[in-house]
Amino acid sequence: MFRVAAAAMLMTLCAGLVAADGPDPGTVALRLKSARYLARGDTGLASANDGGAIGYNPANLAATSISNYDDPSLAAQDPKPWKTECANSIEVAGDLDFWSLMRAIRDIRKSWGIGLGYTKVSPQDRTEWWTAGFGTRLGHSNWNGGIAFQQMGGGLVQDRAKGLLNLGVQGNYSLRDGATLQVGGLVQDVTGRLDQGPLYSLGLAGTFGNTLIEVDWWDLSDQIDSSVNVGVQQRLDDKWSVYAGLIDGDDLTAGVGYIDGWWNIAAGWMQSPRGTDLGSELMLTVGRRIRF
After folding, report:
1. What is the CATH number of the domain that holds 237?
2. DSSP β-bridge partners for residue 275
3. Tens of pLDDT along 88-132?
4. Contact predicate 216/45, CB 8 Å
5. In Å, what is the CA distance from 254 to each residue of 15, 76, 155, 246?
C-alpha cells in the first residue's frame, strides 16, 4: 500500500501538464544527453548514476554505480579501486546530428567522483559544449554536492555563454518496504552569464521494487523554457529494463536498456516534438566500465 501511495504521489505531480508552445531546436537538443534518460522522459536530476551522470547533476558523480559491487565490503577489497564508465551516444535517426562522449571516474572506496563530457549537435548551426564536474558526499549526511563547469559555443547559444558554472545537490533516503527516495537540485549558470540565468531545476525519484519513477521540473521560474518531465524505468530482470516517459506533457519517449557486467547499453526514442518541424529522435548509448 505504501509503495502504491508513494508512486501515485509522484505521478500526480505531472498530471494535467500541457506545453503552451513548441520548443526551439536548441531546447530539444539539450534533451539528448543519454539514451537511457531520454527514454525516461529526459529525467535524471535525482537518479542518474552511470557514465552519463555529468549530463544531469554533478552531485550524482559521488554516487555512480560503476563499482560492479552490491556489497561495499567487496569494493573495499578490490586491488584496482579506480573505476571509470563511458557513455558514448549517437543519434541513429533524427534531424539534430547529435553525438556525445561522457565519462564518470571514481575510486569506489571513496565518496567522491569526477565527470567529463563533450556534446556536439547541428540542427541549424554547429553547437558544442564541454563539461567537467566534481561530486562529493557532504560530510556524513545522506546528501551529495557537486560543481560543474560548461564551456559552450555555437549557433544555438548566446555569445556570452562561454563559461557556465553549475551547482548541484542530491539526497538519498530509505523508506518503508524497501522503497527509496532520491532528491536532486541543480542551479545552472550560477554567475548569470546568460541573459536569463541563473536557472533552477528540481528532481524527485522513487524506487519501489523493480520500478523507478522520476519527475523532473526543469527551469522552475521559466526563464528559458520550463518543462515538467516524468519517466518510468521497469527492471525485467538483472540485465534488461524498459523505459517510458513524457516530456512537458506532450512528447512521448520510450526505450530499452541492457546491463551485463562491464557493459551498459540503451536505446531511446522521442516522438517528433510538437510545435516544431523536427522529426522523431532515435539515439543509442553504449557504456563500458573499466578498472585501473
Report:
1. 2.40.160.40
2. none
3. 999 999 888 889 999 999 887 888 999 999 988 876 566 788 999
4. yes
5. 18, 37, 29, 9
Could you write out the DSSP letters of every residue in 61-111?
GGG---S--SSHHHHHT-S--EEEEEEEEEEEESSS--EEEEEEEEETTSS
Name the residue among 171, 227, 172 with its Cα closest to residue 199: 227
Determine the structural domain holding residue 192 and report its residue range: 2-291
pTM of the model: 0.86
**In which element (H, E) is residue 245 found?**
strand 240-247
Q: What is the pLDDT of residues 203-244, one digit of tens each?
A: 999 999 999 999 999 999 988 889 999 999 999 998 999 999
Domain count, the chain: 1
All cell numbers assigned to 62 = 559521488
Beta bridge partners of 185: 169, 202
